[in-house]
Amino acid sequence: MRTTSNPAFKNLPTAGGYANFNHGQGGYGAPFGQAPAAPPQTARPMTIDDVVTKTAITLAIAVVTGAVTYLMGPIALSLALPAALIGLVISLVIIFKKKVSPALVIAYSVVEGVFLGGISYLFAMIVGNPGIILQAIAGTVGVFAAMLVVYKTGAIRVTPKLTKWIIGAVAGVAVLMLVNLIASFFVQGGLGLRDGGGLAIAFSLLCIGIAAFSFLLDFDAADQAIKGGVDAKFAWYIAFGLMTTLVWLYLEILRLLSYFQND
């Protein structure tokens, strides 16, 4: 399986290590030159339906909880930061936990929905236009669908070179965000990456582009896992990974739209 920029996919087993493990090879207790019986499979291999179903469940939970939180009005603002912190902790547990936990993925979806509802209400209040939320959602869905078509048609192939470029780009923007945050404590506006100016618009467009290309790595990791016959339960990891990229993309699109609303 190729390397991916999404840490959630690092928990997926190596492709090919599930469906045919040791089948057709000599082993202890088998006559010389004779293949042992295939080991019993205690679980079925993952299919595209598993990925679609688990991803739909996680996204539906996030959307519903986000909408409910948004409709709470000003209360949503007080919930955003705690939800972000709790979501970060849960995501780290999911990433470093060796065993698949659907309950944790669902819990992450709920908390992330609360965070998105609160942050969406904040942006809508700042720009004075609730319609910006639907625009950001439409943009996120559009980019996701476009990149899925690009991947399925092979218009852009996921090569080791492209993978390294995307991973480097993700690491680069993460460092810039951190530096800008630290700089904002000493200089108003920090490096100007989030102040709504021309540089901020260019930076948001860059982030949107990198997030979009990250989907290619996510799709490829999922595709390799399906072809490798990994356990169906790992579809929860893929759903979690896709959602983290979708959340990043949504926030960047929402931020970009807010810049133009303020003009």
Automatic annotation (TrEMBL):
Q: Which InterPro entries does the entry mention?
A: BaxI_1-like (IPR010539)
Could you list this entry's UniProt keywords, alphabetically sorted. Membrane, Transmembrane, Transmembrane helix
Keyword Metal-binding appears in the UniProt entry: no
Which parts pass through the membrane? 51-71, 77-96, 103-126, 132-153, 165-187, 199-222, 234-251
Q: What is this protein called?
A: Bax inhibitor-1/YccA family protein
The species this protein was found in: Saccharopolyspora taberi
